[in-house]
Amino acid sequence: MNRKLKKTVFLDRDGVLIELLRGNEAYGLLYKKEDCHIIPGVPKALMVLKNKGMLLIVVTNQPVVARGLASLEEVSQLNDYINEQTGGVIDRFYFCPHHPEMHDDVPKHAKKFRITCVCRKPGKGMLLQAATDFGIDFNKSWMIGDSITDIAAGKSAGCKTILIHSPSNNRINISSTLFDLNIKPDYKAQNLSEAALLVT
User: Fold this and answer.
1) pLDDT tens for each residue of 88-122
2) Predicted local distance difference test score (pLDDT) of residue 22
3) Any catalytic annotation for residue 14?
4) In whole angstroms, what is the distance from residue 141 CA to residue 113 CA?
5) Long-range contact list for 111-119, CB < 8 A, 24+ apart?
6) Could you write out the DSSP letters of every residue in 52-76?
7) Dist. CA 57–CA 91, nearest whole Å
8) 102 with 150: CB under 8 angstroms?
9) Which domains does the chain have, with CATH numbers?
10) Mean pLDDT of all residues in the chain?
11) How far apart are CA 191 and CA 122, in angstroms?
12) By C-alpha distance, which of 68, 61, 65 is closest to 15?
């Protein structure tokens, strides 16, 4: 018997769930618990989405691993902390630890993550893996992110998309995945609280 496919909200992490700015200064790459601050309203917004019957999946590029700043385990531990701080309603975190560029100053233990992959957004590899693991109906699902590469990943999988207002709105990740640089989200929102109201 075929299982019913699930409606899902895919969420970027940094800039959607946790703050990118400290005053007017950007945090840069986030990998320390002390730099992790939940954006006001996020726990309530996640519950709004959960109450709409949505599976909640975070899909996040975490090149801190490829840069040698954090291990896979440390990123997973930080993701667990974020889930605890936001009410424990996120069903799964997927993260891409890779970066396609190789540099001489990369620590030896991190060099194996300096590869071209299919999971790094704007690629849709993490979304496809989630669909395999959970059984997801992309046509009834959403991607909420704060960069145009999030929007490209969501649209390539067939999701509706919402762009959160952020300093990263025009950031384009270095990736092997090509996409239309003029791609537009289906909707825009100031924050996750506003975006949650748009999701149907």
Assistant:
1) 999 999 999 999 886 767 888 899 999 999 999 99
2) 64
3) yes
4) 30
5) 113/65, 113/66, 114/66, 116/176, 117/176, 118/177, 119/94
6) TT-EEEEEEE-TTTTTTSS-HHHHH
7) 6
8) no
9) 8-198 (3.40.50.1000)
10) 91
11) 21
12) 61
What does the alpha-carbon distance between residue 180 and residue 3 come to, in Å, rounded to a whole number?
34
Paired tokens of 30: 């986030």
3-state secondary structure of 95: strand
Residues in a beta bridge with 123? none
Residue with the two structure tokens 């996120």 = 90
Alpha-carbon gap, residue 119 to 94, rounded angstroms: 9
* Under 8 Å between Cβ of 8 and 142: yes
Among the listed residues 12, 137, 146, 150, the single catalytic one is 12
Closest by CA to 12, choosing from 61, 73, 64, 65, is 61
Angle value at C-alpha 116, between 111 and 118, nearest 5 degrees: 130
CA dihedral sign, ordered 119, 122, 123, 127: positive
pLDDT band, residue 1 (cuts 50/70/90): very low
Quick: pLDDT tens for 155-193. 999 999 999 998 888 777 777 677 888 899 999 999 999
Mean pLDDT of 141-167: 96
Higher pLDDT, 144 or 67: 144
